[in-house]
Specification:
The structure is a single chain. The chain has three domains: about 25-155 and about 170-220, MFS general substrate transporter like domains (Growth Hormone, Chain: A, Up-down Bundle); about 220-275; about 280-524, MFS general substrate transporter like domains (Growth Hormone, Chain: A). The protein is about 70% helix and about 0% strand. The chain is built from 20 helices and no strands. It has helices at about 30-55, 60-65, 75-95, 100-115, 120-150, 155-185, 190, 195-210, 220-240, 240-245, 250-270, 290-305, 305-315, 320-350, 355-370, 380-395, 400-410, 415-445, 460-465, 470-505. Helix 3 runs antiparallel to helix 9, helix 5 (about 120-150) crosses helix 18 (about 415-445) and helix 9 runs parallel beside helix 18.
């Protein structure tokens, strides 16, 4: 049997056993916990890296297969599949145990990577990316759920801050690694490199992660899972529909969102009647959870959704090359690392998390409000400082929604709750990207016609901009700066919604290993 082995003797090992009513780690040996945590971080890095690594290799892929009109779908297919299955994986982990559910997700992702590397056309590559996403969504959800089994609530905050660092590291090195691998070994190598990692992680989890069988009879809510997948897929597809149908309010786009709304309505009806709903509606009975989901939504909208637009802003208004703009993001990545590690340790020490969600929202809101007012020619040192401040703010609040929701949810629903948090973060990013694009497009044409020698300003590459005369380049920069002002204001307003939600969260103290219940206290 693959049951968790009973410890020899807690007293013989020099460990005081926790009381029966307290938290007990799935893996009592702290050294083995660290080994397993390393495997989990390798899987997380692999799954999140794959959404970043493809960006710099896409031009090479299009050069081989053609079909430039399907350029965006190589990334969107992965995002759609990942978002659709996240809540389902969380629930499957609650029902069948996290070990085999997570191993299944890693296996699917690894097979998907192999198929991507062997793709013979753009269509087969897009289909393989869907298969990858079906595994990647399970990896991202299951890792945080397994962490909840390994570490007590306060200590968990520190280790989930390390998880946040892995997420940020994958975002930072992904484009660089994708370009390097595709240039040295061909674009297929960016997918095939996942095979040895996946095999090593699968072997490690099979050997060292105990299986904890849930004490309830598995009942899968197939109808609820299908309806939720349709609702989520429709929402993400609608967020990308401007590229396909020309507008978010085109008849076809409205039909997509109407279908999603109908699926969501039917999902609520189904979840209220089944014995084991894929996302228990009881989660939303606790007012803390909906508020933290709003925080997660806003965090994804600004923490993830803003990256591409900040990069475009840097290249069009400051004259930085793509490489220079990428190097400037070291400030943001470093800030996230500082904020995440600091807040993780402080939450572990104090047991309080509300204040960190408030600080995070306020910091990013102020940073983007200042960004919206920056004139052309602002010193790069000041812009770097703003990016650092924003990164620290994002890092401070990175793990707040996950920690808070896991603490507020019933222990039997931790997996479903974790999947819901992750889903809202990615959904917030997807929706925000489309909103930012619509705002930028609405303000871009103003003043562009007055620039001599410029036909379509949106077709200017950084290299073409560098070749313009100083006067023309200044006019182009002014046009972009004018358009980006409202974009940054929209970012500031979105994160302000998250700040307000964080302020409304009840101030609780996380329980210790002795299992004491968290009690609400008045915010100081």
């Amino acid at each position: 049997m693959d049951q968790a082995p009973a410890p020899r003797s807690a007293s013989a090992a020099g460990i005081n056993p926790p009381p029966s009513d307290g938290f007990q780690s799935l893996v009592p040996d702290p050294r083995l916990r660290m080994v397993l945590f390393s495997f989990l971080m390798a899987a997380l890095f692999m799954a999140t890296l794959d959404n970043q690594i493809v960006s710099t290799a896409l031009p090479t892929i299009v050069g081989e297969f053609g079909q430039l009109e399907r350029f965006g779908w190589v990334g969107s297919a992965y995002l759609l599949a990942t978002s659709a299955v996240m809540p389902l994986y969380g629930k499957l982990g609650d029902l069948f145990g996290r070990k085999y559910v997570m191993m299944a997700a890693i296996f699917i992702f690894t097979v998907g990577s192999l198929v991507c590397g062997l793709a013979v056309s753009m269509n087969t590559l897009i289909a393989a990316r869907v298969l990858q996403g079906l595994g990647g969504g399970g990896i991202m959800v299951s890792i945080f759920s397994v962490n909840a089994d390994l570490f007590e609530p306060r200590v968990r905050a520190r280790y989930q801050s390390y998880s946040s660092l892995v997420l940020m590291a994958s975002g930072a090195v992904g484009p660089i690694l994708g370009g390097t691998l595709s240039e040295a070994f061909g674009w297929r190598s960016i997918f095939l490199v996942n095979l040895p990692i996946g095999i090593i992680v699968l072997t490690g989890l099979a050997l060292f992660l105990p299986y904890r069988k849930p004490h309830r009879r598995p009942k899968i809510d197939y109808a609820g899972a299908a309806l939720l997948a349709m609702a989520v897929t429709s929402l993400v597809f609608w967020a990308d529909s401007a590229q396909i149908f020309g507008s978010l309010v085109a008849p076809e786009s409205l039909a997509v969102i109407a279908f999603g709304a109908l699926a969501a309505f039917l999902w609520v009806k189904v979840e209220g009647r089944v014995a084991e709903p894929v996302v228990p509606l009881g989660l939303f009975a606790n007012p803390t959870i909906p508020l933290l989901l709003i925080v997660s939504l806003a965090s994804g909208a600004v923490g993830i959704g803003s990256v591409n637009y900040v990069a475009l802003y840097l290249q069009t208004t400051t004259g930085l090359s793509p490489t220079g703009a990428g190097l400037l993001f070291i400030a943001t990545t470093g800030g996230i690392a500082i904020g995440s590690l600091t807040s993780g340790r402080l939450i572990a020490r104090s047991g309080r998390y509300k204040i960190f969600g408030m600080i995070s929202g306020a910091g990013s809101c102020i940073a983007f409000a200042i960004f919206s007012q920056l004139p052309v020619g602002t010193p790069l040192v000041f812009i770097t400082f703003l990016m650092l401040a924003h990164g620290i703010s994002v890092g401070i609040g990175q793990q707040v929604p996950v920690i808070g929701v896991q603490n507020a949810a019933n222990p039997r629903d931790v997996g479903a709750a974790t999947g819901t948090v992750t889903l809202t973060r990615m959904g917030g990013a997807s929706i925000a990207i489309s909103i930012y694009g619509a705002v930028l497009g609405a303000f871009m044409n103003h003043g562009a016609a007055a620039i001599p020698g410029i036909g379509n300003i949106e077709e200017l590459t950084p290299t073409a901009m560098a070749a313009l005369s100083p006067q023309t380049r200044a006019l182009v920069a002014e046009t972009y700066a004018h358009a980006f002002g409202p974009v940054f204001i929209s970012m500031s307003l979105m994160i302000a919604c998250g700040f307000i939600a964080a302020c409304c969260v009840k101030n609780v103290q996380l329980p210790t290993a002795r299992g004491t219940k968290p009690e609400a206290v008045l915010a100081e």
